[in-house]
Amino acid sequence: MEIQVAHDTTLPVVPLIIRGEVITDHLVEVGGRGGDLRFLTPDWHHYADRLPLADPARLAELTRLTFDDILDYAATLAKHLDLASNPHLQRACELTYLTAPTTPSLVRATYLGLPRMLDRAAIIEATESTVGIRHLEGWVRQTLIDGTELEVRCFGARALHIVAGNSPGLSLLTILRNMILRSDAIIKAPSNDPFTATAIARTMIEMAPDHPLTRHLTVAYWKGGDEAFERRLYQPQHIEKIVAWGGFASVKHVTRYIQPGLELISLDPKRSVSILGAGTFDSEQTLAEAAQRLACDIGAANQTGCVNARVVYVESGTDEAGLARLNDFGRRVYEAIQTLPNSISTAPRRPDPNLKADVDALRLDDDWYRVIGGEQGEGSIIVSQLSDPVSFAAALNDRNANLVPVDTLDQVLAAVDATTQTVGIYPEALKDELKDLLPLYGAQRIVSLGYAVALKWAAPQDAIEPLRRMGKWISNQIASPERVPGPWQRPPIVME
């Protein structure tokens, strides 16, 4: 939808979606991240009291759904999320070209892949391997060793989701997780993707306006850091769980609102590394394979994800011969990045000028670094000539990666800590040496090199199981004095 505003400027409108209602009143003008687009959205202050679920008893209509009902709804939604025929998605995709951190071909590829996220078998697999479907369908009973009958069930919650905007797929993943758990969701749309979640919600409304899953989804945009608004909303009588994606500042900001009854599930910013063993250099075949795989881990989604490799430790050796091997390998990786399909990686949309300046400065210091490529902002491979990463390693982005030579893999362990999310490893046999050791230092996900961005939602994320954490696990103890002696029946303690 578009409306005419002052100065003859036509701006797109991001509606407010409140549980099946599309709202376009009380509009205010805001700007997306990057400054490329301004848009209109309903004034969030005006609707602050309507965003929370007024009556928690309404969640009962969700608990009456069967898991098959949810699967059927997801299958129907998948058919409606066809970019070729869905005008809401088409418009959202076009507008996201202007706000996303990635290029249009990458944005479009993600939109084209949305229906695949709703695959029936994949939903069953992910749910069964984390929550367990029977815990969502009803009370699961067991008899404890003292005779107590214990029933456990996972209930949905009233949840607020602060979604990251580095991939449109995260909005659909959030919606899907809430469908599975039968939760009531308020999604805070991010400034670099304010359009995707709204487009999906509007599709759900047109598809099934009276369905409980439609009636328990709210999507709103508000400026992060609006404390007057957020203190009003972020209260345990309104919200039980906050699921926060995003950068350090935004996650840190949310923590000020946490109090008893309001739980934070933080999917906070992480960094990822790769480890390549000496077997990388066994043959021309292993060199070519490792270069291709590493190129994908660096370049996929233009290195915007936490999962992307940025610093790569290579067991090449630090002597003259070892550095020569690594410099040659760096050229192979750079060339492989340039040939990745444009549905996976492209030259960055807006290279960070400060990062480019740091990379360019290293070209003058060839005793310590070799810089391969990057002159046009297309990304570079920086090969350290000592066993130390570059000083700006934490800022590596835009398809810029740093290869660091080591003599032994023990040197890598000091670089792994609690902020390390994904570790890509090559050759595969090297995992057996490292998979029981890396988690002790903080690594949270171990993956075959080349598959860093091939996330599996059936697996844990950031060393937790978000789907399981998003539910409320309720227990019901059943006991009687005939089977389980009560506390009052215990013999008294005799005091000397």
Automatic annotation (TrEMBL):
Entry superkingdom: Bacteria
GO function term, MF aspect, one: acyl-CoA dehydrogenase activity
Keywords: NADP
Biological-process GO terms, alphabetical: bioluminescence
Name of the featured protein: Long-chain-fatty-acyl-CoA reductase
Upper lineage: Bacteria, Pseudomonadati, Pseudomonadota, Betaproteobacteria, Burkholderiales
